[in-house]
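Please describe what follows:
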Amino acid sequence: MTSMMNRKDFLRNSAILGGASILPINNVFSQNVTENGMDKLVDSNGNFIQKSLPYNKTFLEPHMDEETLHLHYEFHHGGAVKGANKDLENIKKHLQSGEMDQVDMWTRKLAYHFSSHVLHSIFWSNLTNKKTQPKAELLKQIEKDFGSFDNLKAYISKISKSVEGSGWGILGYQPYSQSLTLLQCENHQKLTQWGVVPLLVIDVWEHAYYLKYKNKRAEFVDTVLEIINWDNVAERFVTAKKLHG
């Protein structure tokens, strides 16, 4: 379990996001955010860091098994964090030496690894072990942009199941159109839109489901949609709108 944030940090983050009523003390999102309400993914020196899981590794069973969660978090997400730090180190080194072909190569690698870090960090806090429903402001926006909550679920289910190769289904907030949008992301960084802030992500890389679901990606996606923490998605929606005025 993540440690409880101290009172000073809680009050600071709550004030930024509009008060304790928006982010309860025991909510993982309120514990793992920076001063602007975004996920805390770097330390004070700018190095990428992996925050602790918001629950123990049996919390999501039977929907997601302990072994998959362990391997996914420790080695796939953890490996992306290590990779992003290595990429950044090499970019800085080759900028100093003027080797711009190397800078180009490591910049591409950083796009891949850091995008993985961002999406995985959101993924863990998007999940819970019970059924929830969107409500209030988020539900109104869903109905405005997709017609109904059922339409949204059908849409994100379809694009998640039909990603070519490895990737993600993503619900995000697009500030330029002030609307919710759905993205079918390949790998971790392809087919995105500039400006979109991810609110809900569904990992459909095989490492997310293969031990339990084998090749049944569709069954895994259906299961994940039953354990989405819509309260967490709603908090991210409020934050995304504040970040962009």
In short: The radius of gyration is 18 Å. Residues 1-26 have pLDDT under 50 and may be disordered. The chain is about 50% helix and 10% strand. Residues 66-97 form the longest helix (32 residues).
